[in-house]
Amino acid sequence: MLKEGIIMGTIFKYSAVFLTIMLICAGFAGAASKPPAVGDQLAEFTLPVPKNDKHQKYLGLAGKESFKIADIKAEVVIIEIFNIY
User: Quick one: which of 22, 30, 49, 51 is 20 to 30 A from 13 by CA?
Assistant: First the structure.
């Protein structure tokens, strides 16, 4: 009986630690997913060049394998981001 109580206590402690770590990680993930504030800059990232030659020419990206948003020669670039769960 005493041994079962020790085992259950140990399982409870490890479960509590695991749950606490998961909740902390979830909090950090939620904080990182806030939308940018007005005036913030978009983080730099690399995208694959479209396979369609017309799309490559339209974006001015012919002959490249990947590109950054700054590589697009335009006064304004509109980016639509979908967040799908």
Answer: 30
